[in-house]
Amino acid sequence: MTQSQRIEDTIKMTQQVAKDYWIFVSQLVKIRNLTGNEFANREQAKLYDRLNVPFKDWLAGLTEQDDREAKITIWKQTLLQLVRRSAQELMNEATGRDIVGIPSEKGTVNIFTAMNRLNHALIVDLGLKQGEKHEAKNS
User: Fold this and answer.
1) pTM of structure
2) Among residues 46, 114, 124, 53, which one has the least CA distance to residue 85?
């Protein structure tokens, strides 16, 4: 796989993770009985703003001598940290309705089940292993 293919795959992975975050927020929209996608779209835009500088810095820091997989792993850790921080901010602002949730075909959906689904999607889309501690390293 060429360097440009790896970068393209990393961009696609980043976009998928942003979509996972949008799905998380859209579940909050349903729980809160809001209409439209404005809230989810706004929150996803905030996430992209939060990712912009770190991604550009990561990309600019790539050299021919780098171990590509190691560099991609660093980006995955950064991405995971930033998405989880964004989701945690919404968790910190949870309303009573967010906590109690709403009934669905699969049982109650609340902010905690939405967060669990987001975490599962992140593990899958970032190619992480279930059960490992997934903490971003400060570098």
Assistant:
1) 0.89
2) 46
